[in-house]
Specification:
The complex is a heterodimer.
Chain A (H helix, E strand, L loop, with lengths): L1 H28 L4 H6 L5 H10 L6 H13 L13 H36 L4 H15 L2 H15 L11 H31 L2 H8 L4 H29 L3 H6 L5 H11 L2 H29 L5 H5 L1
Helix pairs in contact in A: 1-13, 5-6, 5-8, 5-10, 6-8, 7-8, 8-10, 9-10, 10-13, 12-13
Chain B lengths: L1 H19 L10 E6 L14 H10 L4 E3 L5 E3 L2 E6 L5 E6 L13 H12 L17 H5 L9 E5 L2 E5 L7 H4 L10 H7 L13 E7 L3 E6 L12 E6 L3 H9 L5 E3 L2 H8 L2 H4 L2 E5 L2 E7 L9 H10 L2 H6 L6 E3 L21 H11 L5 E7 L2 H16 L3 E7 L1 H9 L5 E7 L6 H8 L16 H12 L3 H18 L2 E13 L3 E2 L16 E2 L2
Parallel strand pairs in B: 1-10, 15-16, 15-17
Antiparallel strand pairs in B: 2-3, 4-5, 5-7, 6-7, 8-9, 9-10, 11-18, 12-18, 13-17, 13-18, 14-18, 19-20
Helix pairs in contact in B: 10-12, 15-16, 16-17
Classes of the chains: A mainly alpha, B alpha+beta.
Pfam families (chain A): BPD_transp_1 (PF00528), BPD_transp_1_N (PF19300)
GO cellular component, one term (chain A): plasma membrane
Keywords (chain A): Cell membrane, Membrane, Transmembrane, Transmembrane helix, Transport
Chain lengths: 310, 522
Amino acid sequence: MIKYILKRLILLIPLLFGITLFAFFLLNALPGDPVLGLVGERANPDVIEGIRKEIGMDKGFIRQYIGYLKLLSHGDFGRSYYTNREVLTDIAMKFPNTMRLAFASMFIAVPSGIVLGFISAYKRGRFIDRFINMVSIASLSIPVFWSAIIIMLFLSLKLKLFPPSGTGDIRFLALPAFVLSIPAMATLSRVTRTAVLDILKMPYINTARAKGLPLIKISFVHVLKNAIIPIITIIGLDFGSYLNGAVVTETIFGWDGIGRFTMDGIIKRDYPVIMGCIIFGTVVFVFVNLITDIIYHYLDPRIRLHEKSE
Amino acid sequence: MDRLFAHHLFCLLAVILFLFSCTSSDRLEGYIYYRLNTNPTTLDPALIVDVSSASIAAKLFNGLVRLNDRFEVSPDIAKRWEISRNGLRYKFFLKKGVRFSNGREVKAQDFKYSFERILELKTKSPNTWVFDKVEGAKEFQKGQAKEVKGFKVADDYTFEIKLRMPFSPFLSMLTMTPAYVIPKEEAEKWGNDFASHPSGTGPFTLKNWLTNRELVLEKNEDYFDKKARVRGIVYKIIPEDLTTITEFELGNIDVISLPGSAYSKFKNNKKWNKYIMSLKGLNTYYLGMNLSRPPFNNLNLRKAVFYAIDREKILETFYEGRGRLAAGPVPDLLRKWDVKAGVNYNPEISKEIIRREGLSGVKVNMYVTADQDVIDLAEIIQAYISEVGINVNIKQLEWSAYKDAVNKGEPDMFWLSWWADYPDPENFLFPLFHSSNIGPAGNRTRYINKEVDTLIERGQNSINENDRNNFYKMAEELIIQDMPWMPFWHRTDFLIKQPWIKDYKVYPIYTMDKGIEVAIER
């Protein structure tokens, strides 16, 4: 297991190399000049040149990239062009907020999605199944910004139950977490339904039923255990993307997380921030995938990790 | 069973809502709440170029002079000043007992340090242009002199500035953010981080700054002038307009600028319309044309564009009357002269010009930013121009790419605005139309008229106000005739305040609001 984890971590190096190179190339290829955004309307050309020099934009693409890699090798993500703050410090400050949001939304989405999926599968073809399916499809089709606005207007403005924006305790967390959980809940419900239906067709389920085992035991011991792999996959993917920042949700609810930080960086063409967020996002995804694989291994010993790594 | 399930689900949701909900106000008592749509980039006066940062800096710092409600230059830290007859020497007499937030008294030497810091290339200030007409500024920047000859400390409370040549807007430029005084010891102690540890003389001090969340200012009890009536100011950083409006309606924010999309909603609401305030902005929105190459190097085609667009109708309908029709580039509030009425909408004349010039079907590229309001407006302009036979291809670009393209002269037409940094017509004429400013410095239409250059320069160098206005008037008239850009309107902004906010004043220039008049009464 340790050998497998080490292998995966070593693989992160070429992956990061490729991703930074690609992102760096894209940022350089984009039209526009980030320095112009920094200096306002009437800056002295010598000052503009000085800033270009300071941030290394006077050099060619290769030299800039090597310079950036050197910086990275010291664990330095550089400083924001605008605030002059260390990008890594900002990421470290914002990540806990994003993590809280991701955990909270998964806390809502996972149990409710799985329960709804089970109910839907057990009540296949009945009203409740059709209703859950309809709600799931609607939840997946409605854009997050729209549901966020509607929920905010209803729960904050009309019912005055939650603050509409800000970063803080559970009151501030509730709305963005709920909005973020909606598509995850819908996906999980649909995936669970399909997986459960597949399992329910298996002969061992009939055997268990014939033996007179209670439904709850059949569900947890036989069905859930065997249907869990696709569910874990969806949870892993969603969780990974939430940890990278849910841009729309964080922006609408003014939640101070990685998503808003990344968005700000993109709007302002703050290259160190954009690069820092890309690298951080890659690392997060790799780690989440690694943990997902480990969970696969423990839940289903037929999945051998060393085979996957080869 | 299904009904039972629905009932249980409803009960569960109700319990969750009850447990989690609680909207007790988190407001700090006695603090006024404003909204910023983006995090201020810096609070170092040397580096500030954005309005958010500048409006906060105005509450943390002071300069020698500031603007009063009538746009006149009035005393700030300088109690009075003298300007030599030839307009070259400015002598400022400082108030005694003005203290930085670290407790040290402000002396003339602090102004010398603060102003030289702007000019020093290592500071990388984008605002060097504010002081580049001071004697010895160029030599200092090139490293040929250790100090700026034109900044002289006569004694602790007397500071002199000598210019290379008379420059009439100089005094109003000293009301700007880069002319604020800062303490050397704090600037050197914090280095680059001075931007987030500002230390000034203003009516407020920085208490807390959580990036992307909020920024809290606290009343400075030792402020040398009239003290603030609120305990402090909280700037909530909220990117979304709709979220801001929700926060405002819940009473969590006290004053907001009304976004165009919400203007009608509040205007037609009896509860709210009496709390709407308007602000005539010192700005000009315009459609620029690239004069450096065909087709807009042809004056007649530019004239045809003027005749083709009904600005008045666009202003009244699309823009809901939120502005004043512009006669020329200089905003009406700054113009102290009359200008002849410009070209009025007449598509027949426009078509006739295009037919006569043989330009029917000419294709032009119009660049706009990816802002939805601007895109909508561009489509209206496109429709008008297409009607007279000019094909307009709209190209949307992200802001910095847009700015870069316009600076390089890539578009044939573009949509931009210019806002005053200081209340002088020169701020609209020199950067935008002087041939030395082609490209990034402001003259993006690449307009070259030597006569206009001379008139602007004569206005800048003139000490007599009447003469100055006369030169500016002549320059503006020539510009209107040459039509390098079609001025559309001067935007009027609308704000809305809570009923408990008293004496809130709106200012067209961000440095004018020191935050000392406003009060909370509930």
